[in-house]
């Protein structure tokens, strides 16, 4: 089964940090990045396949389409059967954490900075 | 013969001495020890410093040398506030005797018909009846005070025409209208909401009201149906909640600001900070202190952090 890793984040430095960390734990899958929810949604709308697996790191605060809006739109398109979304945000705001609970698609709420141990867990869980 | 042993304080205002002695005799026949004060003229009665508090009843001749007729009855009634006044008259003044009753006298006696039994009956009857009248007056006053002096503004309006029938002092104070300016006006002079329906289903409603100076207030209104002068009416109690609403709005707007600040801290300030932490971790773990790319990112993130802090400080200044 083909596996996709997406990073949806408008902050280039944040993307670099995540990518380097993924390299460190020897993830070999190709990583595709999007700078906002809209680009990622458009891509998924065209390319999403039910028999392939998706691991998505999603930021909340982004221009064009933020993380929440992306989740609302993508809910009708993808299922958690083959997709794990990790909300990766600088926010430690309770309101954001509560809101995240409303989305079944979200596998886990992660506060930046991301640490290697958490990524290893994700790697094992998704058999990357 | 039964003689009443109770103490009676009786005032007789009568200029005809013959009539007075007769009256005195009749009274003494039925009452053991009547205390009778006699005045021949109205002014004597008026100027006497006698306290009227102990007095039980006044017998008043309708024609005195210094005053008579309507004027006399009115003036005596004014002085003898809470004492029954029984007027004495001859046949010739019979029609006026009825007028005296209309003016507020308790009873009339035709002099030519007076005997001890009749006089005694009139005395006892009028004293007792007057006690009840006073009780009714007091209870009327109490209800009137409950309405007039209630600290809560109250309207009484006609149920069909919505015309204002009565308002209390608190109402005049809150809306800054005088009572006369409001009577017979529609309640819509004050209640400015499009639909002002008073049905049975909803008894508390929040409305916009307008004061005389056009200032708008928010009021919580409670009402009930009553009968007022035989007509269906509605009694409305108004509770000015403008201030509490304003306080609530102020608190809500401050809450919104606080939530905004929490959001800014989490997303704008923490974003470069988490990058810094992430980069330092990477540098440590990969032992790449000399990695120029990472160091540049670190530098950039520190600058971003400084900028966003400055921005927040500026924003809080404008709050």
TrEMBL record, chain A:
Keywords in alphabetical order: Phosphoprotein
Modified residues (4-aspartylphosphate): 59
Hydrolase is among the record's keywords: no
Keyword Phosphoprotein: yes
One Gene Ontology biological process: phosphorelay signal transduction system
A Pfam family that the UniProt record links to this protein: Response_reg
Domain Response regulatory: residue ranges: 4-127
Annotated PANTHER family: RESPONSE REGULATOR RCP1, RESPONSE REGULATOR RCP1-RELATED
Protein name: Response regulator receiver domain-containing protein
UniProtKB/TrEMBL annotation, chain B:
Annotated ranges, domain PAS: 139-195
Domain of life (superkingdom): Bacteria
Identification of the protein by name: histidine kinase
EC supergroup of this enzyme: transferase
Pfam families documented for this protein: PAS_9 (PF13426), Response_reg (PF00072)
Recorded catalytic activity of this chain's protein: ATP + protein L-histidine = ADP + protein N-phospho-L-histidine
NCBIfam families: sensory_box (TIGR00229)
EC number(s) recorded for this UniProt protein: 2.7.13.3
Keywords (A to Z) from UniProt: Phosphoprotein
GO MF term set: phosphorelay sensor kinase activity
Source species of the chain: Flavobacterium aquaticum
Domain (Response regulatory): residue spans on this chain: 9-126
Positions of modified residues (4-aspartylphosphate): 61
């Amino acid at each position: 089964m083909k596996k996709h890793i997406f990073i949806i984040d408008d902050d280039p430095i944040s993307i670099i940090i995540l990518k380097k960390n993924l390299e460190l734990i020897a993830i070999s899958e190709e990583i595709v990045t999007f700078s906002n929810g809209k680009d990622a949604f458009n891509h998924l709308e065209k390319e999403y396949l039910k028999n392939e697996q998706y691991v998505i790191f999603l930021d909340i605060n982004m221009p064009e389409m933020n993380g929440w809006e992306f989740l609302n739109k993508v809910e009708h398109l993808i299922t958690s059967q083959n997709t794990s979304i990790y909300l990766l945000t600088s926010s430690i705001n309770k309101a954001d954490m509560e809101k995240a609970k409303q989305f079944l698609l979200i596998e886990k709420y992660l506060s930046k900075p991301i640490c290697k141990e958490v990524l290893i867990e994700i790697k094992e869980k998704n058999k990357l | 013969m039964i003689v009443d042993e109770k103490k009676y304080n009786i005032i007789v205002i009568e200029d005809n001495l013959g009539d007075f002695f007769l009256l005195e005799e009749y009274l003494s026949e039925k009452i053991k020890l009547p205390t009778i004060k006699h005045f021949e003229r109205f002014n004597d009665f008026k100027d006497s410093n006698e306290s009227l508090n102990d007095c039980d009843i006044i017998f008043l001749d309708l024609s005195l040398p210094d005053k008579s007729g309507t004027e006399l009855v009115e003036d005596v009634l004014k002085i003898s506030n809470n004492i029954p006044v029984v007027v004495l008259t001859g046949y010739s003044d019979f029609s006026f005797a009825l007028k005296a009753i209309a003016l507020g006298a308790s009873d009339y006696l035709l002099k030519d018909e007076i005997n001890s039994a009749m006089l005694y009956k009139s005395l006892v009857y009028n004293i007792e009846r007057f006690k009840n009248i006073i009780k009714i007056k007091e209870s009327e006053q109490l209800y009137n005070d409950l309405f007039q002096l209630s600290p809560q503004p109250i309207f009484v309006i006609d149920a069909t025409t919505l015309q204002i029938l009565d308002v209390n002092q608190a109402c005049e104070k809150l809306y800054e209208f005088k009572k006369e300016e409001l009577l017979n006006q529609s309640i819509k002079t004050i209640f400015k909401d499009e639909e002002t329906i008073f049905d049975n289903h909803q008894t508390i409603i929040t409305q916009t009201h307008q004061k005389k100076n056009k200032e708008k207030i928010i009021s919580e209104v409670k009402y009930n149906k009553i009968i007022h002068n035989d007509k269906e009416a509605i009694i409305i109690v108004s509770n000015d909640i403008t201030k509490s609403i304003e306080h609530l709005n102020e608190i809500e707007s401050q809450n919104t600001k606080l939530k905004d600040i929490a959001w800014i801290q989490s997303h704008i300030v923490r974003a470069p900070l988490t990058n810094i932490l992430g980069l330092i971790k990477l540098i440590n773990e990969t032992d790449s202190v000399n990695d120029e790319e990472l160091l540049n990112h670190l530098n950039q993130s520190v600058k971003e952090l400084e900028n966003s802090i400055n921005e927040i400080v500026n924003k809080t200044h404008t709050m």
